[in-house]
Design goal:
Blueprint: E1 3-5, H1 15-21, E2 30-32, H2 40-45, H3 51-59, H4 68-78, E3 99-105, E4 108-114, H5 124-142, E5 146-151, H6 156-164, E6 170-177, H7 183-190, E7 197-203, H8 206-218, H9 220-225, E8 228-229, H10 236-253, E9 261-266, H11 271-281, E10 286-293, H12 298-305, E11 307-309, H13 332-339, H14 344-357, E12 359-361, H15 366-369, E13 376-380, H16 383-397, H17 403-413, E14 422-426, H18 434-441, E15 462-465, H19 468-479
Parallel strand pairs: 4-14, 5-6, 5-8, 6-7, 7-15, 9-10, 9-14, 10-13
Antiparallel strand pairs: 1-2, 3-4, 11-12
Bound molecules: pyridoxal-5'-phosphate (PLP) and the ligand N[C@@H](CCOP(=O)(O)O)C(=O)O.
């Protein structure tokens, strides 16, 4: 597999080098130079595989430098019903990401692809648990250590910390937006007392934290000296691990590989739906990829107008689907690269324009005019919409969904097509956002036993301004390198 950067840097890196390196040296994001193609016959041959075996088939197309038997052992260790049954009380745990069909709406089946039954109750666990095992395996082999610098708006942080706690040779420095996550999310992260975990609450929004992560990665000398890695979806390994559940969702929803399925994805950093885009480019018969945003509607605006206008921190709303409070979607660069015909120089210029001019305008560009061929459509949801949707889904189907999934269901319902099943990606469990659930239905959601009293545990966090140099100093002091 040959990997290249969206901005043109061609470093001849293997999968394992990209895994450890994160962001490309030119500030772009890594992608394979060609997506491997799956035929309907191959897809049919994958029907009935366990999730771990399916993950092996998909990942072995990309992880070229890990011996097959090692990759098999890694996915089997990762994708077990025991790890992915948290909070769920049904008998389909073996599917790892089972579909919860809600019912028939407008002549088609509407379902939830359950992605949030891992250790931290959000879809991030699907890829992050694998990353934890991949990092351990790769570092062990190379006799190296890694200092992970991450940014979170609430879920990546805890998923990464739970996946890396106690892992030899790995430290996690996680930047979170001070005061902008739910109390449950805060408690999940800040109550961890493991020596290799450092929580840093910055005075800013997720985008400020992500800018700092990129700023550190772009200081090549610092990055090399302090052995900095990433776990956000800027890391290719995160995205490719997320591709697997689109295949699983498709296979569970269909009987033959000539059928089509649509997916609706609550979106912020565009990592989740980017994985769907890659699955579609590989040949998975996806009809529509529906991008659902909250009040931070940069992506919806782009798909509707062709204009990408990243918002400043002060223009980013603090909403009741806080994990999607993102106005500068990193992975959007991976899609734009494909959209403009894999023109790296142009992509580099456009994302330079995001930094210097605040965005770019493709509204009159042939690439945007042809965007329908990628299957993307979009919509937006507000606080009032999510309350209504949570209430309605609860009343109609006796199912409780979280605020982000509610944004997805709201927008999915606006994009249903007769006879094409629509799967909404369930990106978190309701307990993570209990206050809003209570506002919607008048009672708090159920709480898995392992999280009882989590908010009362002592918390460990360092608060600092959103300042690149202060973060660098903090990391340097604790790596001792
Ligand atoms: C619960 C939840 N839903 C949706 C999203 C948005 O996903 P993405 O950033 O991959 O677009 C996130 C964060 O990423 C999340 O934590
Ligand atoms: N929503 C995420 C932030 C985006 O993270 P990524 O790791 O998927 O890029 C969060 O909850 O932290």
């Amino acid at each position: 597999m040959h990997y290249i950067s969206t901005r043109g840097h061609n470093a001849n890196q293997t999968f394992s080098q990209i895994l450890l390196g994160g962001l490309a040296a030119d500030g772009g994001l890594y992608l394979p130079s060609k997506y491997p193609k799956i035929t309907p016959a191959q897809l049919d041959a994958w029907r009935g595989l366990s999730y771990a075996d399916l993950a092996f088939e998909v990942l072995s197309l990309y992880c070229d430098d890990i011996p097959k038997e090692d990759l098999k052992a890694l996915v089997q260790k990762t994708y077990t019903a025991q790890v992915y049954c948290n909070g769920r009380a049904d008998d389909r745990a073996e599917d790892i990401t089972p579909i919860h069909w809600l019912g028939d709406e407008q002549g088609t089946r509407l379902g939830l692809l359950s992605l949030s039954n891992g250790p931290t109750l959000a879809f991030k666990d699907m890829a992050m648990q694998l990353l934890g095992n991949l990092f351990e395996y790769t570092l062990n082999k190379q006799g190296q250590e890694l200092n992970i610098l991450g940014a979170t708006s609430g879920d990546t942080g805890s998923a990464a910390e739970y996946a890396m706690r106690g892992k030899k040779g790995v430290r996690v420095f996680m930047l979170s937006p001070n005061g902008k996550m739910s109390p449950f999310q805060v408690a999940q992260m800040y109550s961890l007392q493991d020596e290799n975990i450092y929580n840093i609450a910055i005075d800013g929004v997720f985008d400020d934290a992500q800018d700092i992560v990129k700023g550190v990665s772009n200081d090549h000398a610092y990055k090399a000296r302090h052995k900095i890695g990433t776990v956000n979806s800027i890391n290719w390994a995160r995205v490719v691990a997320q591709v697997v559940y689109y295949f699983q969702g498709y296979l569970l929803a269909t009987k033959t590989s000539h059928e089509k399925v649509s997916f609706c994805v609550p979106s912020g950093n565009f990592g989740n739906v980017c994985a769907g885009h890659i699955a579609r480019m590989m040949g998975l018969p996806i009809e529509k990829l529906v991008v659902a945003t909250n009040e931070n509607d940069v992506l919806d605006e782009f798909f509707k107008t062709g204009i990408y206008r990243a918002r400043k921190s002060a223009e980013t709303f603090h909403t009741t689907s806080p994990s999607m409070d993102i106005s500068k979607a990193s992975n959007f660069e991976r899609f734009v690269y494909d959209l403009v015909g894999q023109d790296a120089a142009r992509t580099a210029q456009m994302f330079k324009d995001v930094e210097t001019k605040g965005g770019f305008d493709l509204s009159n560009d042939p690439a945007y005019k042809d965007i329908a061929k990628y299957g993307f459509v979009s919509g937006k949801s507000t606080h009032a919409n999510r309350l209504d949707t949570i209430r309605d889904i609860h009343a109609k189907y006796s199912v409780l969904i979280d605020t982000h999934t509610a944004d997805g269901v709201k927008v999915a319902r606006e994009n249903l097509q007769k006879d094409i099943p629509m799967l909404v990606l369930e990106t978190a469990l309701p307990i993570k956002f209990a206050e809003t659930i209570e506002e919607a239905i008048g009672r708090a959601p159920d709480r898995p036993a392992s999280f009882v009293g989590i908010e009362d545990k002592p918390q460990r966090v360092t608060v600092m301004p959103a300042d690149l140099n202060q973060v660098k100093d903090f990391v340097a002091k604790h790596t001792g390198l």
